[in-house]
Structure formats: structure tokens, C-alpha cells
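Hi R.,

Here's the chain you asked about this morning:
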Amino acid sequence: MYKTVHGAVGVRILLLLSVLTAGFSQDPNVNALVADKPASCDDISGQWYNQLNSEVEFRHGDGFQLHGTYGSYVNTAQTHGNSSSAAATRGRLIGFTKDTTLGFTVVWDTSSTMTSYTGNCYVDHERGTVQIRAAWHLVERQDSLADSWKGVRTGQAVFTRQRQQACF
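And the predicted structure, written out as C-alpha cells:
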């Protein structure tokens, strides 16, 4: 059924098969150059990572709805010095996306805290990459009016489909 191909033709066929099947490896490090999603903001479902190596997974719901999960290493990294030695703080997210705009809120599992993000998806056509740039507001429970000033924090996040160098 199978014929053995020898010589230069056989080598060329093996090289061609290697190139054609390179994107099907189970090792994510091997696939780093082969994006699992094309450079487009049409479908943002899947895994994304921000500059602090937090992980977000988006899933599309009905209409413009977004659902997913969020894992943040910010608090654990500040305590332990890096994100590899501690578990992430987890949260569930719900939001909306339309065209290139999106907004979502994360309800954190371990505290009376929520973080809301609003932003845009951008395609860098020169690099063939996609990123989401968003502003966020974290709201944390405060038990007194006098402490209300420390209940809101604001910042920015840049999400990409590849892990980034954490900047703690």
C-alpha cells in the first residue's frame, strides 16, 4: 500500500509533509509561530493574556454577549514575587462585544470585588497580531463612607493571544 521513496524526491516529500503538518502539533510552544486564530477582531473567543500575565477566556453567547473566566496573578505575584509560584485569583465574566468594541465585568470568586473593562480590539497588519486595549475600574467593598475613597482603582490593560513578559 505504501511505497518507500528514496533519494532527493523522498527528502523533498518529507520536508513538504513536515511543513504542512507543523501547525498540528500538540505542543503549544511549537505552535507559537502558527496562530490558532487569524489576525482579526471578528471573533475574539479563546484565550488572551495581559501585560501582567493574567489570563482571560472569552466565549460568545447570544447576540453580542460575552461570557468567560478570568485568572489574575496580580495579588499573588505581589505577595510571592512572581506568578509561577502561586495560584491565580479567579473570576467569572460577562459582557458585550460589537464590531471592535467590548465591555465586560469580572466578579471575583474570593472577595467582594468587581472589575469592569471597556475597550477596543485592534489588528496590527504589519505583525499579523491582534490586541485588545481596555481601561478598567476595580471596585472593592468598603464598610464605611470614610474609606470609600480607597474602594476604586483605575488602570489600563493590553491583551494579546500570546503570553507577554510580566512587568511586576
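The chain is about 15% helix and 40% strand.

Let me know if you need anything else.
M.
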